[in-house]
Design brief:
The protein is an alpha/beta fold. The strands form five sheets. It has a ten-stranded mixed β-sheet. A hairpin with a 2-residue loop joins strand 26 (about 515-520) and strand 27. Helix 4 runs parallel beside helix 6 (about 200-210) and helix 8 packs across helix 9.
Length: about 600
């Protein structure tokens, strides 16, 4: 596969690299005296020099040698001061949209943390504006040094027949994306039931990807690690970030699947299986690290892949192995190891210098031989991106948002009724199908805040007055007031939750007016608001400003009574109809084990 993510392909500059390595041509840059983390041999090599030319590594001085012969009058010399040098970190599975900023602002946020490449699945924007929306995102991405590699979304919609999205992507579209220079694989195949049922749509998407010699990334959420997992892998899906236990991880590794070990803002899976993985002594060459979803305040306050490495080391993994999982293993999986993943002659000069391999504080970051960040600051400027109009006018609700839409009619005039409610668990994507009892007044179902039972509405925001909406309940959030957001995976319809109708109406209309985002309302007052006018998913502001706004919303959540970590992201998957057990789309409740619709009231 031709790698379009280097300044120059190797065949255009290998003659220069040959000359630099032998001292016949001066290097562009020589980094002196670093502790080289050799991911190819699992060693740390002291007092190592690295010579760079044409955006690539030309020469690595192994112990007993120096790169002095590569230095010329115009060579830039960098004293490494004995810092650790690793390849640039990469994220094996990420949705940029979760950062609530576009790719260029995202780059400005993560590159200073040592991230030089990401494998991005833009299925959030794609569900709102299709492949044209994806193209617009990558136009923004081309303006920054971060290597934003594309894995086109495989599931738009995530599951057919249960929700209404703003776009539809099929195998013909996937075949088209496989010809794009940015594409390196297929985005997560969430429709694993469709694969196991040999349905034409997902199987054809997989076939188009395999024919293009690209990898198919996965999303396998079920306890069946026998026949089902074997079938899923046999179909051509070769990686998965949805592991809930060590047994899940081990089964995937034993069957030859790459296991993407996840630590995001809300999905904190790494502690649940990494210690056992370390103790098991199992070979980790098929282990990749990923964040999946990172909030802007997580990036600004805690970091990105450096944060994942810190946590991995804290959980018992040695620093060099952790680096391998974020560099060489990824490049190998995605078929890019000739160019990426290691500091070695001929490879792209994506290099990070660290103080140590425990705290992982990045001191200097190079991408394609250019210094792009130093001491936590990006050295490249990012001007606001001019988003096209079709990306900034996506709240197409028509006349759906009337007070009557928030009435939950019931056959009973008064008393109580048993209903289904989505039960949530902190730090996990899985939900429960809970049966709860709620009051009935005047033939209408009511919230029951005393027992932490909230009303939940989902409005189709893509089809105007022709759209539909649904009613449900949720338990586990513990709030008084109302919350609304247009970040609601994966259709990204308008999700409104609360304990009273007046606050719910205000929250919904606030987002309709500003083009989407997230809002917290209590007793008729907007406590906090994050405006996301681009597809209802992205801000046009700076990542630091968006992080501050998100922090204000999180503080509002706490004031309203919620104790969950990253509750916005937990609420955001209430409509994710491909993850067990119970979800709510604009069409109603979906049982994500049987993929059948379920009634609200339980007889």
């Amino acid at each position: 596969m031709i790698n379009h993510y280097c300044r120059k392909p190797l065949w255009e500059c290998n003659d220069t690299l040959v000359g630099v390595a032998q001292g016949q041509i001066p290097a562009d840059t020589v980094i002196k005296d670093v502790r080289l983390v050799s991911v190819t041999t699992h060693e740390v090599l002291d007092h190592t020099d690295i010579a760079l030319a044409e955006g690539r590594v030309a020469y690595v001085a192994l112990p007993g040698h120096t790169a002095d012969h590569c230095i010329g009058p115009k060579t830039q010399l960098v004293d490494g001061h004995g810092l650790y040098a690793t390849p640039g970190l990469m994220d094996s599975h990420i949705h940029i949209e979760s950062s609530m900023v576009g790719p260029s602002e995202y780059a400005r946020g993560v590159v200073p943390h040592g991230t030089t490449g990401i494998y991005a699945d833009p299925h959030e924007v794609a569900n709102v504006r299709g492949l044209e929306g994806v193209r617009a995102m990558w136009e923004d991405a081309e303006r920054v040094p971060l290597k934003v590699m594309l894995t086109p979304p495989s599931c738009v919609p995530a599951v057919t027949g249960v929700e209404d999205t703003g776009a539809d992507i099929d195998a013909t579209d996937i075949a088209q994306t496989m010809t794009w220079p940015a594409t390196v694989g297929l985005g997560e195949m969430m429709n694993f039931p469709g694969v196991l049922s040999d349905e034409t749509r997902p199987m054809d998407e997989i076939r188009e990807t395999l024919k293009a010699d690209r990898v198919v990334t996965g999303h396998y959420v079920t306890t069946d690690t026998d026949r089902g997992l074997n079938a899923y892998i046999a179909a051509g899906v070769s990686s998965c970030h949805e592991s809930g236990s060590f047994d899940d991880v081990l089964a995937k590794l034993r069957l030859g699947m790459y296991a993407q070990l996840r630590l995001g803002s809300a999905w904190l899976n790494l502690p649940g299986y990494l210690p056992q993985l370390v103790q098991s002594g199992v070979d980790t060459r098929l282990c990749l690290l990923c964040t999946d979803d990172c909030h802007p305040n997580t990036i600004v306050s805690d970091g990105h892949m450096d944060r994942v490495l810190r946590e991995a080391v804290r959980l018992g993994l040695d620093g060099v192995t952790a680096v391998q999982m974020a560099t060489l293993n990824m490049a190998t999986y995605f078929g890019q190891a000739q160019d990426l993943g290691a500091i070695a002659p001929g490879k792209c000069a994506d290099i990070v210098l660290w103080q140590d391999l425990t705290d992982f504080q990045a001191q200097m970051v190079w991408i394609d031989g250019r210094l792009v960040a130093q001491e936590g600051k990006a050295l490249f400027a990012v001007e606001p991106f001019a988003w096209p109009d079709f990306m900034t006018h996506t709240m197409e609700l028509g006349d759906l948002l009337t007070p009557r839409a928030f009435d939950f009619p019931c056959d009973k005039p008064d008393g109580t009724a048993k209903v289904r409610a989505i039960g949530i668990k902190a730090g996990d994507t899985l939900t429960q199908d809970a049966i709860v009892e709620v009051p009935v007044q005047g033939g209408k179902l009511q919230a029951d805040p005393a027992h932490d039972i909230l009303k939940l509405c989902v409005f189709d925001r893509h089809h105007g007055s022709k759209g539909t909406y649904s009613h449900g309940f949720a338990t586990g959030f513990g709030i008084h007031g109302a919350l609304a957001q247009t970040v609601s995976h994966d259709a990204h319809n308008l999700l409104v939750m609360g304990d009273n109708d007046a606050d719910m109406v205000l929250a919904a209309r606030t987002l309709e007016a500003c083009g989407g985002g997230e809002v917290a309302v209590q007793d008729g007052k907007v406590l906090a608001l994050v405006e996301l006018p681009v597809c209802g998913l992205l801000s046009t502001g700076r990542v630091e400003d968006v992080a501050a706004q998100v922090s204000q919303v999180q503080e509002a959540w706490r004031q309203m009574g919620c104790k969950l970590p990253s509750p916005f992201m937990t609420m955001g998957v209430m409509s994710l109809a491909c993850v067990p057990v119970l979800r709510q789309t604009n069409r109603g409740y979906v049982n994500c084990l049987t993929f059948q619709m379920e009634p609200l009231v339980v007889e």
